[in-house]
Amino acid sequence: MKFYLFHLMPYPHLNPDYDNRPTGWINYPNENYDPQKGIRIYNEYLDQMEYAEELGFEGICVNEHHQTTYGTMPAPNIMAAALARRTSRVQICILGNILSLHQFPQRVAEEVAMLDVITGGRIVSGFVRGVGAEYYSMAANPTESRDRFYEAHDLIMRCWTEPGPFECYGKYYRFRYVNPWPRPVQQPHPPIWIPSTGSTETIDWTARLRYTFLMIYAPIKVVSGFFDEFRKRALAHGYTSSPDQLGWSVPIYVAETDARAHTEAREHMLWLFNKGLKNPLQVSIPPGYLTDESWWRTMNRPDRTTKFFGNLSYEDLVEMGYVLVGSPDTVARTLMERQKSLNFGRVIGLFQVGDMPHKRAVANMELFAREVMPRVKDAVPSAV
Amino acid sequence: MARTDRREALLEVSGIKVQLLEGGAGPPVLYLHGAGSPGLWNDWHDAISAEHRLIVPSHPGFGDSDRPDWLLGIDDMVFFYLEFLDYLKIDRVSLVGLSVGGWIAAELAAIEPRRVEKLVLAGAAGLFSPELPMADMFFTAPADLRPLLYHDPSAIPVPEMTPELMRRQYKGQVTMARIAWNPYLHNPKLARRLSRIDAPTLIVWGDSDRLIPPGYAELYRSHIKNSRVRIIERCGHNILVERPKEFASVVAGFLQEKRGGDR
């Protein structure tokens, strides 16, 4: 089992009227962002990520979101660059660049290759479509999202694997001279991870290309179903997938006892799901972001949390397995049980959750690294 | 009278299935619907079809009409309708368009002015001015849409939300997003092209249109040489549903005017 520390870099200081707004994305006024507070927040978060190397995590993970309190990393490659020369061993996982928002996907190929060269090949390149809100924030057409994602992906992979210059004539991307410098250190290309909320199309595509599939923010039953689906799709594409191709992304909080862990975690977990992720349906799923069929499936999925983010209770989050909270013993046992039944090879843990202050986040990381990680690693040898 | 005369068909035009309602006889009128009401036939249609051959297709990607892969922008809608008129062997037609239908009508009249006998633009999308902000129909919660569409939402019955209706609505929203997400509900090139229109043009707007504000009526008038504005009072964006009879008498009167008599 391999452990990664994931960060969202949320902006925790919310305006008192925040809860009366439908969403903290898109149009929550940016006058509520105080750059003076930002100095401290960014640097504490970066300190946490750098510290993860010392604590023995396999990798540290950044990501891309726009115009939101939920995560203040609109340019994940900049954060990866900030971490590149302050770390020397960990993988830096960009989970991921939002391909559908790029007019020039070569820019992603270039930046990730730069990072891969600077770090001597420590980059994991994740690709995502972004959440629905992104399509409002950037005025990108949600009906083009999936096709642009595939086409941008194909172009980036050509950038990394095909000798340039070459020409590219797609539906959205048409370039006469594609010849990016530098090329990545890792050959044929950096590992590709696909974080997803589990659309059927994405699962099949990820399995077909033999990439790593990460499940985010779902009840554990749903995660289990999608991992099964991934393995089935891999078999249908002619191979048996490795547990390392499956990652479970989950907010984690560990304290000395179960009771103390729950008392301390509650407010931060609720911040993440009910403040950070709060979005009305038309924002979560803008028209065309899902195909007509996927949209209909989503609206009718029996296992779907009938409650949308924004009104889940802490008990819902714990019982449904959206989050993992408890004493080191509880968390280690739960991880081993889940690993055994779901057979995944990577845990992508969120340790600074919502408005969790620096000290608490660091204590959480330390306790997890000291008491949980070694136990689980011993019990579950890595697949590769 | 006209209601019994109404014909329904599923045509095959430009390689796609197109839902068509048709009624009446006489000079042809092509009605281009708004995003929310494909396949609707009400008192307005009865009144207009009393004196005209009224042709009411559902746009590609709305109602029972297919959404083809090539439908990516408003220009694709316009070229589809030129082919649709060819299919029906109609050379010249009067166009009545509401909302997105008004946008299609304005674009078509600018591209092929010779084929347009008369033009009615009702609460039409298509233009943009920073002084006239439009509401965001995509970002607006479903519950808040009705006040954008009606002067008095309480007077308009709420349709029962069946799975079939939900699917149709989503289909229409996706098509709207394809053609109108960005630029939002307009074509920056349209304003300059409108000077090509020579058909007599009536611009009809609800005074309480909170989706596309009534100021756009005057903006359209300023670009179309042979045009005039008629404001309907206590009426929102969806003129067809909120004021069908008044809308019918205004349009019927305009269609009956002799061409050239009102310049």
Overall description:
The complex is a heterodimer of chains A (384) and B (263). Chain A has one domain (2-379): Luciferase-like domain (TIM Barrel, Alpha-Beta Barrel). In chain A, 43% of the residues lie in helices and 15% in strands. Chain A is built from 13 helices and 11 strands. Chain A has helices at 35-55, 76-84, 106-118, 132-137, 145-161, 200-208, 220-236, 258-276, 281-284, 292-300, 314-319, 328-342, 358-379; strands at 2-6, 59-62, 91-98, 123-128, 166-169, 174-178, 192-196, 212-216, 246-254, 324-326, 346-350. In chain A, a hairpin with a 4-residue loop joins strand 5 (166-169) and strand 6. The longest helix of chain A is centred in the C-terminal third of the chain and has 22 residues, at 358-379. By secondary structure, chain B is α/β, with parallel strands linked by helices. Chain B has one domain: Alpha/Beta hydrolase fold, catalytic domain (Rossmann fold). An 8-stranded mixed sheet of chain B has the order 1-2-4-3-5-6-7-8, with helices on both faces. In chain B, a hairpin with a 2-residue loop joins strand 1 and strand 2. In chain B, helix 1 packs parallel to helix 9 and helix 2 (74-87) packs across helix 3 (100-111). Chain B is globular, with a radius of gyration of 17 Å. The mean pLDDT of chain B is 95. The A-B interface holds A 22, 26, 135-136, 139-143, 280, 282-283, 286-288, 292, 295-296, 299 and B 138-142, 166-167, 170-171, 173-174, 176-178, 181-182, 184.
Shape, principal axes of CA atoms of chain A: globular
Structural class of chain B: alpha/beta
Greatest interface: A-B, 19 and 17 residues
Number of individual domains of chain A = 1
For the record, the CATH class of chain B is Alpha Beta
**Portion of residues within helices of chain B:** 25-40%
What's the CATH H-level homologous superfamily of chain A? Luciferase-like domain
Strand content of chain A: 15-25%
Structural class assignment of chain A = alpha/beta
